[in-house]
């Protein structure tokens, strides 16, 4: 049975993680996988998470099943984090939130749900997008089409190209958007662009599907949710996939959520039943631990404050690194886009050959596309990384 299988190439992000781990150099720098790192290069457990875990250990009474939707308390609090506490979609029964195994679980279950809504659903994704969007959505059987997003010369959003391409979409088509901190480019839509894309989606009868993997790491929890909230306010149906991997640092606990907003409470109820049935037939129920930790944090004013302060410091650190890095690279060209962009990622705009030289000669790891994780820099490594990039840019 297995003899006909061919070995697949490594996933580019996971393959880079492995190559970095196996590199014996002590001065190597990891700007590859999208995990937050502190000044010491560590991905620490947030102190609010540690405190919640201690509480959980003392109070948890059972490991019995939690059900396909996950924890009700987590779902309510995450819905409020995404939409703001008083949002009508949450109070009038149009929104369903379910806990999922990470943001990936949310994306895949959204795709399975869309397939149930309409087997020939087309989803439009940005070029570029996070590489795993394609297998996660395409693997459910959705047709994938691409809209241009990034102007490769200025490394900013090519909004005219995006809009004119999406004018070709048919009613009922789905548009995948990044809520904030666009992965891989760091180029986000501004408030006017969110308003314009909302108009287009409304006029053409499209369905927005927003990936919100980085809320709180762009400009702050509220600011980063502006686009999602605008669409939830104005449009009858919205899908949002969110993740607690980055903003709670719960990567390996696989904690995420999927929100469906329907036009009416009755449609919301039907949609929820379909989604829960799809979950049951895929993984039955999500893991509990990460969501229990998040629920404890968001439900406690003291822990929520502690978490927000810590997340705010992470966000500020990324913004400071962006400013310092763009300044340090200035002698090699115009890298001011790095300071304007948001979240963990930016493209350097260098060639794959230059990326390879940085990896082999200098031990600096980034994706072949030249996507770097800004949070992988530190005050200690920024000067030598900048110097190496300046050197390699001239070759
Ligand atoms: C990334 O883009 O590096 C992260 O989202 C990690 C992953 O799973 O790809």
TrEMBL record:
TM annotation in the entry: none
Names of required cofactors: pyridoxal 5'-phosphate
InterPro entries tied to this protein: Aminotransferase_I/II_large (IPR004839), Asp_trans (IPR000796), PyrdxlP-dep_Trfase (IPR015424), PyrdxlP-dep_Trfase_major (IPR015421), PyrdxlP-dep_Trfase_small (IPR015422)
Any one of the GO BP annotations: L-phenylalanine biosynthetic process from chorismate via phenylpyruvate
GO cellular component, one term: cytosol
GO function term, MF aspect, one: pyridoxal phosphate binding
Keywords for the protein's UniProt record, in alphabetical order: Aminotransferase, Pyridoxal phosphate, Transferase
Aminotransferase class I/classII large domain location: 26-388
Domain of life: Bacteria
Keyword Lipid metabolism appears in the UniProt entry: no
Pfam families documented for this protein: Aminotran_1_2 (PF00155)
Record-stated family: Belongs to the class-I pyridoxal-phosphate-dependent aminotransferase family.
NCBIfam families tied to this protein: PRK09257.1
Subunit structure: Homodimer.
Listed PANTHER family: ASPARTATE AMINOTRANSFERASE, ASPARTATE AMINOTRANSFERASE, MITOCHONDRIAL
Descriptive protein name: Aspartate aminotransferase
